[in-house]
Design a protein that fits this description.
The protein is an all-alpha fold and 99 residues long. It contains 3 helices and no strands. It starts with a helix and ends with a helix. One of its GO terms (cellular component) is respiratory chain complex II (succinate dehydrogenase).
Length: 99
Amino acid sequence: MASLLKSSNTLSILRNHHQAAEGLQFQSRRQIHVEPGAREKALLASDPALARFKSYRKGAASIRRIGDYLTIAVVAGCCYEIYVRAVTREEARKAIKSE
């Protein structure tokens, strides 16, 4: 009986510690909003020297769209290949059973 009370007490302590740790974790994610200072605003401002390296929106969007279509085509090809192999294997099994 004493060991049962001891283990339940231990579990209670561990549970409370775990809940306290979760509370700290959630609290650290909720940051208080602070306005950026002068240095942060200067770093976030657009720099004309970097303008020539800027990717253009239409070009980047078209490349992204082409990549999406290629991904869909590859996934569809893989699914078709798996389907064909499964059907061929099933036909081979039926042919062996019917012989």
